[in-house]
Amino acid sequence: MTAIAVSIAGSDPSGGAGIQADLKTFSALGVYGAAVITALTAQNTKGVFGIHDVPADFVAAQLNAVFTDLDLSAVKIGMLANAAAIDVVTAAIDRYRPRNVVLDPVMVSSSGEKLLRGDALGRLRELMTRVRVVTPNLPEAAALLETAPARDEDDMHTQAQKLLTLGAGAVLIKGGHGSGPDSVDLLVEPGGACVRLAAPRVTTKNTHGTGCTLAAALAAGLAKGLALETAAQEAKTYVSAAIAAADRLGVGSGRGPVHHFHTWW
Questions:
Q1: For residue 252, which of 111, 115, 116, 137 has the smallest C-alpha distance?
Q2: How wide is the angle at C-alpha 27 spanned by C-alphas 26 and 31, nearest 5°?
Q3: For position 176, what pLDDT does the model report?
């Protein structure tokens, strides 16, 4: 049986993040990718210049079309720019009860542009209660908790535990915004289990789409039937290699994309 995952996210016309990054990741990892587009963006490696929200009723129509036909093994949720989009996605999750929902709480682009309306934060916390795992970076975890970003691994662990109390099934808190020789992520599950995922920090400006790619890789692993810890470890390995190979691409004049097909090209 073919493993199928759907990405519910915004479109990046430059191909480095969002829907495009997710579909590349699914393909690279041997999973059939479907897509529900929540927003159109005008962006490239230098920044985001405009966002056009897809009407909520049409997001709902896309969701219904996919969920009623495809046997989905995993769902990856990315950019949901407004409360209406979050509401229809939440309703679809409640109606269809998909397995293995991964929520990447996208709030700000890698170039610094705000991607989530301020009035939608509470709705995003509500959606978080429906997912198997949420994958915030340090600024996103802080925003969800309305606190300062974690300064070290102890802070990361504390914030992950607080996110669990808000209803997330598990938390993969990402340390890419931190410092030190290693980029450390923590997978924290209810009951106190904590797995440290570390990789050497790569010096490169080409990190566009890193968060999208990690969450999509995690969803791909779950779609193939891997245990959460194994899927997280393999996702970390994949995205770390994609970052390490990013400078080989030479795409754009700003913050270029990671190399999703580093194994083949």
A1: 111
A2: 60
A3: 79
Q: Which of 18, 33, 169, 211 is catalytic?
A: 211
Distance CA 116, CA 76 (A): 17
Q: What is the bridge-based pairing of β-strands 182-188 and 171-173?
A: antiparallel
Among 45, 90, 210, 213, the active-site one is: 210
Contact of 22 with 7, CB cutoff 8 Å: yes
**pLDDT band at residue 24 under the 50/70/90 scheme:** very high
Q: Does residue 1 register a pLDDT over 90? A: no
Distance CA(43)–CA(13), nearest Å, equals 6
Active site residue 194: no
In this predicted structure, which of 119-123, 199-203, 208-212 has the lowest mean pLDDT? 119-123
CA pair distance 48, 262, nearest whole angstrom: 26
- For the question of whether the overall pTM of this predicted structure is more than 0.90, the answer is yes
Quick check: helix, strand or coil at residue 251?
A: coil
Told to judge if 237 belongs to the known catalytic residues of this protein, a careful annotator would answer no
Domains annotated on the chain, with CATH: 4-248 (3.40.1190.20)
Are the C-beta atoms of residues 18 and 212 closer than 8 Å to each other? yes
Query: What sign does the dihedral 131-138-208-59 (CA atoms) show?
Result: positive
